[in-house]
Amino acid sequence: MVAIVRVYATGLTIHTLSLREDLSRVVVKKVKVVNTEVLEPTSEVRFVGSALGTFVAWPTHLLKVISQKHKV
Q1: How many other C-beta atoms are found inside a 10 Å radius of the C-beta of residue 20?
Q2: Are 6 and 59 in contact (CB under 8 A)?
Q3: In angstroms, rounded to a whole number, what is the distance separating the alpha carbons of residues 6 and 51?
Q4: In angstroms, rounded to a whole number, what is the distance separating the alpha carbons of residues 31 and 71?
Q5: What number of CA atoms fall less than 13 Å from residue 37's CA on the CB side?
Q6: 48: Cβ contacts below 8 Å, ≥ 6 apart
């Protein structure tokens, strides 16, 4: 595990770039391994350590659900 993220089901773009079908839109909430390269780097974010609080594209097959919170 390199980070804890929140997955957002809405939004087909990140920073005006369209997402591919195999990517999810996430916000990095907690960084576990700072120097790990993100798999879809941008001009602002190349490493997980610099992605804290930022929307990034994350390969859907690499996401593992650890908690599900639902609004009531």
Answers
A1: 10
A2: no
A3: 12
A4: 25
A5: 5
A6: 2, 3, 28, 31, 32, 33, 34, 35, 36, 37, 38
CA distance linking residue 69 with residue 53, whole number of Å: 18
Show me where the domains of the chain are located: 3-62
How would DSSP label each residue in 34-62?
TTPBPSS--SS-SBGGG-BT-EEEEEGGG
Residue with tokens 């920073």: 15
The pTM (predicted TM-score) of the whole model is 0.80
pLDDT in tens, 43-52: 889 999 999 9
Give per-residue burial for 40-49: e unless 16+ CB within 10 Å, then b. Answer: eeeeebeebb
- Confidence grade of residue 29 (pLDDT, cut at 50, 70, 90): very high
